[in-house]
Write a structure and sequence with these properties.
148 residues, mainly alpha, CHAD domain, 5 helices, 0% strand, elongated
């Protein structure tokens, strides 16, 4: 429950804009923390947690259009969508690879090694792309301004 301790700051007396900034800042800090974990260990579990955190921030952030300037809002939303797109491509590849492994084991289907190798290569490349995008996201001045 300590993940939601920021909710203690959200009382009935708080203005919407202040609540929006508290939520945005908190969600962004979670993304930064999970991005660091992912960079240390880019496994499926860390990617999954990061995907969820970005999705939660984006959905919350979409309600705050009138809180931020058009430039900040549009830029941040675009960057969140970009991360989601990269995560989605990686997830699609991972699911396909996982299903092929299951088929080859359970049904004893002979999956061409070339296909498995291609998907494994894609997985490695996607992990590198995700790391690059996370570094860009974390280094983005407009995104960082949301922490102030």
């Amino acid at each position: 429950m300590d993940k939601l301790k920021y909710l203690n700051k959200l009382t009935g007396n708080i203005k919407f804009s202040k609540a929006a900034k508290i939520i945005t800042k908190t969600r962004l800090k979670v993304i930064y923390k999970l991005a660091d974990k992912y960079m240390e260990n880019p496994d499926d579990e860390n990617l999954h947690k990061l995907r969820i955190a970005v999705r939660r921030m984006r959905f919350a952030y979409e309600m705050f259009k009138n809180v931020y300037t058009e430039e900040i809002y549009t830029h941040t939303l675009k960057e969140l969508k970009k991360l989601q797109d990269v995560f989605g491509l990686a997830r699609d590849n991972d699911v396909m690879l996982e299903k092929l492994y299951i088929l080859s084991k359970d049904v004893q289907l002979d999956i061409p090694k070339k296909l498995i190798n291609k998907l494994e290569k894609n997985k490695t490349e996607m992990r590198q792309k995700i790391s690059q995008e996370l570094l860009k996201f974390k280094g983005d001045n407009i995104i960082q301004s949301l922490l102030n």
